[in-house]
Design brief:
Blueprint (H helix, E strand, L loop, with lengths): L15 E2 L1 H10 L7 E4 L7 E2 L3 E2 L9 E2 L3 E4 L1 H4 L8 E9 L13 E5 L11 E4 L28 E4 L9 E2 L10 E3 L7 H9 L4 E5 L3 E7 L3 E2 L10 E2 L2 H12 L2 E8 L3 H11 L5 E5 L10 H5 L13 E8 L1 E2 L3 E7 L4 E6 L3 H20 L10 E6 L5 E2 L5 E9 L4 E4 L8 H5 L3 E5 L5 E2 L4 E6 L2
Parallel strand pairs: 1-19, 7-8, 14-17, 14-18, 15-16, 18-22, 20-25, 23-26
Antiparallel strand pairs: 2-13, 3-13, 4-12, 5-11, 6-8, 6-9, 7-10, 19-21, 21-22, 23-29, 24-28, 25-26, 25-27, 27-29
Length: about 450
């Protein structure tokens, strides 16, 4: 890398905040949501707030891992196809069976996968090791009980010996009563939901998934599927950020585009406060004549006569590229956090990954080590050096190759290049004190997928 550039300084007009300072302020203002009790499927994606212990052993009884016959090992010792062991079938043992037949000397019971091992039995021989009670060669399966109830009686020829406990799942072989099933802080995915159900938990205490409302601003924005008029573009930001919020673990509500009118924007945000744990806006945070987010948010939720404390918004310039203009604060009587992101699509998405995603994960109650995307070190693979502005932390789209430990640039550095973003799986980070990165230099790489 090139020699360090000068550290960022106050501009005389407005201080340039570092990325780390801004993120620290965002996280300091976000508190994990209060825990609630939820049904299992409603708790998917949520974070446990208490340890869950196992009330009963799993499995709760010795059971068969195969469809076959429950036998005593002495009765099948030395059995072969030429000299099979001939046993009397005394009945069926199906999954869910209550009263179980006792297996005595010279006897066997047909048993199904998951069924409890009957008293007296010491092992299970798979049905493929027998003639299935048909008196012929090796069986390929059992005749359904409804089609041939007589199959539960008669004789069966066993062609192979079985050791004690063969094909038997022992009681408590998965977990024992009193074991820790899941620790507080666990994110509940499908396997964890399955375990909770298996040990009999119908509800669980978790921090709920944050409700995130996403809206974009700009009179030039048209919804996909509608016709474009001269000077208009399709609204991609609200779709991108709503999808990103879901990916982070939130419940996302996409409001869509709001025209460049402060009263309309203020009214829309006030309407959304009732269903928001976090609000995200895009556009209108720079210095243009039509950047109305600052104007609109200065009085959201304020009721001077009632003396309502509506929180505080602050708009900053950050020492980063893309994403220099940022807004953050709390609004409304409940002090709902709001992050105001720039409107250029790449600036908006990079800002989401750096600031909004950590805020969502903090609301979920995840530890600080898990709120941001993971990062790795990788070697730049490029055909030319990459430039970076002095005093700014630059985030460039990249394609990361885990096997080779390299990262390659995808597209240019423009903040409007959505196509390049769609083909990137990482962000290459160029520090504030570096103005040029050479092929072969090592970089920090933020992994997006």
């Amino acid at each position: 890398m090139s020699s360090p550039a000068a550290a960022p300084q106050d501009t005389g007009q407005q201080r340039l905040w570092s990325v780390d300072e801004h993120l620290a302020d965002v996280l300091a203002a976000v508190r994990p949501l209060e825990p609630i009790e939820l049904q299992l499927l409603d708790a998917q994606g949520c974070v446990l707030v208490e340890d869950v212990t196992v009330p009963v052993a799993l499995p709760p009884f010795d059971n068969s891992s195969m469809d076959g016959y429950a036998v005593r090992t002495a009765d099948v010792q030395g059995a072969s196809e030429e000299f099979p062991a001939v046993l009397t079938v005394i009945g069926d043992v199906a999954a869910g069976s209550g009263e179980l037949p006792a297996v005595g000397p010279g006897q066997a019971a047909r048993i199904m996968t998951g069924a409890p091992l009957p008293p007296g039995a010491e092992a299970v021989v798979p049905v493929e090791w027998t003639d299935g009670g048909a008196g012929a060669g090796a069986a390929t399966g059992m005749t359904p009980a409804s089609a041939a109830p007589e199959g539960a009686g008669g004789e069966v020829r066993v062609h192979r010996a079985a050791e004690a406990r063969a094909h038997v799942r022992a009681r408590g072989s998965d977990v024992q009563a009193g074991d820790l099933a899941l620790a507080a802080g666990t994110v509940l995915g499908p396997p964890q939901i399955a375990l909770l159900a298996a040990i009999g938990r119908g509800t669980v205490r978790v921090r709920p998934r944050p409700r995130v409302v996403v809206l974009s601003t700009g009179s030039e924005l048209v919804q996909p599927g509608e016709a474009l008029a001269p000077g208009t573009i399709y609204d991609s930001n609200s779709f991108a950020l709503a999808a990103a919020a879901r990916d982070a673990g939130a419940i996302a509500y996409r409001v869509g585009a709001v025209a460049d009118d402060a009263d309309t924007l203020r009214s829309t945000i006030e309407d959304q406060l009732i269903r928001a744990d976090l609000l995200v806006t895009t556009g209108g945070v720079s210095v243009g004549a039509y950047d109305v987010v600052k104007e609109a948010l200065s009085s959201v939720g304020v009721d001077p006569e009632a003396g309502v404390d509506a929180g505080r918004m602050e708009f900053r310039k950050l020492a980063m590229q893309p994403g220099k203009p940022q807004g953050f604060g709390t609004i409304g009587p409940d002090h709902t956090p709001l992050l105001a992101l720039p409107g250029n699509p790449v600036s908006s998405y990079v800002s989401f990954e750096l600031f909004v995603r950590p805020a969502i994960r903090a609301l979920m109650g995840l530890p600080a080590s898990e709120v941001s995307r993971p990062s790795v070190r990788a070697v730049l693979k490029a055909d030319r050096p990459l430039g970076s502005p002095a005093g700014r932390r630059q985030f460039l789209r990249g394609a990361y190759d885990k096997e080779s430990g390299t990262v390659s640039p995808v597209g240019g550095s423009g903040s409007h290049l959505i196509a390049a973003l769609a083909h990137a799986d990482s962000l290459m980070v160029v520090p504030e004190d570096v103005t040029s990165v050479q092929p072969g230099d090592e970089l920090e790489v933020v992994l997006l997928g």
